[in-house]
Write a structure and sequence with these properties.
291 residues; mainly alpha; two-stranded antiparallel sheet; 2 strands; 1% strand
Amino acid sequence: MGSLKMNKIVYLFLLPALALYLTFFFYPFAETAIYSFTKWNGINEATFIGIDNYKTLLSDSAFMAAAGRIFVWAGLSIFFKVGSALVIAYILRKPMRGIRFFRTIVFFPYIISASAMCLMFTIIYDKEIGLFNIVLRVLGLDSVTRYWLSDPKTAFYAAIAVPIYQAIGYFFVILLAAMQDVPQDLYDAGKIDGTNGLTEFLYVTVPSIWGTLTVCIILAINGAFHDFTYIFILTGGGPGHASEVPATYMYKEIFVNYKFGYGSAISVGIFFLTLVVTMLIRKTLTSRYKT
């Protein structure tokens, strides 16, 4: 009886979270999925058209190109966001003079709002007064300078460099906390076996925090697949569709072209694409951890 009563209390405490989940995720998603089977401009009555929106989506070259970019974004996020945070956390894991200052410097960009960060980098990328181009001129690379956010060849990479740089501090804190929980005995045993800084990092630190590292990689991938703010503020998906990602493409289809049905199909596509990729990455990394 006591166990049954305890279970009822647990379920009672779970109800508010369940209610929020159903209200702010399940219901909106279900409604979006329903609209994805319709042709609707947001004003007139929606017309059911079956899977026509999804057929259009699969043949939409602009969407396919945008989807390809988020895989590039995800790969760069893993390498630079998680990779840089991992190396920095390893370097700053031990007590040293000024350690709090250095840790604060690494984490500080993360607490700046996305809009403020985008404004700052808009100035940094400016061709005439931007710090980036000024440094290139000092180095004698005047021919390399350009309008980084307006050039189709560089706009996408210039835009995603901002969230990648800003998120390093976030992953740094997570990985640093994980490293500080690694028993010192493992490092001592490694030294007896002749490990140096690099081998200690690869064969002691990384395997010991592999579970946390897996979570960071999945978070980095999800961030790349869902991030909208930075591309929207910095380039708006332009010039043309040069820096378009699925989230900005969805926004334009719904709020610019008033294709609510097609935009809903894009949203559902983003969800399932993220779900499949996340599950595959999680399974791969988890199996690697078990071995």
